[in-house]
Amino acid sequence: MMTMLPAQAADQKPLKVASDVPYEPFEMQRPDGTFTGFEVDLVNAICEQMQRRCEWVKQGWDGIIPGLQARKYDFIASAMSVTPDRRKQVLFADPYYAVPSLWVAPDDSDIDDVSGDLAGKKIGVQRATVQDNYVTQHYPKAEIRRYATADDLATDMSAGRLDLTFITGPLAQDVLINRGNFRQLGEPVSKPKSIFGDGIAAAFRPRDRALVEQFNQALHKVEQNGTYDRLMHQYFDYDIHPDTTQ
């Protein structure tokens, strides 16, 4: 999908944006191949503000940073949390949203909380995410099952092949809780910062500082002119602004 183009941008080379879809409600792909979702719509608005064409590229999560480093695309916009480890590989723009992660269990599960070690329990996570890092660090006695996509994770959860899953809150609502037979377990999780980072942001190659500055300027204009809040309320009934006070 390309953004609507201002006339002065018509001759510029498109900026290619990588995203791992589907990851509802942030990134989704319509039957015609075009992209939609909160993050997609937000980045499209930022691209318009930059007066640049943006072209979306589907890229699996496992290879999304290597693909950026190999110059397959210009930046990543794919619900990527800003973490210390990732800062060693990419240059992040300013965070543009933040969401907690949730534990989800079947309605009939006998698991009441996650305060124990969950030894032997089958926990589903998406591979190489902050949720994967959190579960790996805090529940070493559990049987952790890692999935390439959130859809694959949801499929196994629905089929009864998992005891629990740990994923971002909006995704948990969309692919499990809102579809019935599942419930949130415990409180939302957003700490420690060493794992969950500073929020979610677009990721660029370290050498592209000028492009990141342009992106940040456009992001702040989109926040100031009301576009950000309009899109947020279109997709969510709660505030997802990142905490800039930390």
Automatic annotation (TrEMBL):
Transmembrane segments: none
Membrane in keyword set: no
Keyword Signal: yes
Domain of life: Bacteria
Matches recorded under InterPro entries: SBP_3_CS (IPR018313), Solute-binding_3/MltF_N (IPR001638)
Coiled-coil regions listed: none
SUPFAM superfamilies: Periplasmic binding protein-like II
Keyword set, alphabetical order: Signal
Similarity comment: Belongs to the bacterial solute-binding protein 3 family.
Name under which the protein is recorded: Transporter substrate-binding domain-containing protein
Species of provenance: Kushneria phosphatilytica
